[in-house]
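Much of what follows relies on a compact textual record of a protein's fold. An example makes this concrete, so a full record is given next.
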Amino acid sequence: MKNSKREEIVYHSAKKLFNIVLDIESYPEYIPWCTKMVVNEKKNNEIYADMFVKYKFILKQKFGSHVKFNENQLTIQTTYIEGPLKDLKTNWRFEEINKNSSKIIFEVNFEFKNYIHQKLAETFYPLIENKMIDSFKKRANILLD
């Protein structure tokens, strides 16, 4: 299983950044490779959703997830339900530094069902992670500046 933890300082409020990440319906507008999001159920502090992803030379794939979030603690946890992976877990934590800056802690653990896909993903993961984090930061700058 591949594990990664990343911390970033972002010059926006933690609560506003939390809201941007939690707005999963908007992901196709700015997340690379995300072509469609379908929210199947939303209740209290939980969302069941499917993300459709299309990479070059690979057929469109569906990733079903269960998202739990806590607005008071500013945390978002995603647990994988179905798709091409064996397992996937993500954790977002947003910590207020001051009213204009925050620390974002992003952790991910994933494992593909197919060994070759796993090794390819591990090789390219830093590029994918950088592109995804940069997309969230650019989105925050567009919406909040």
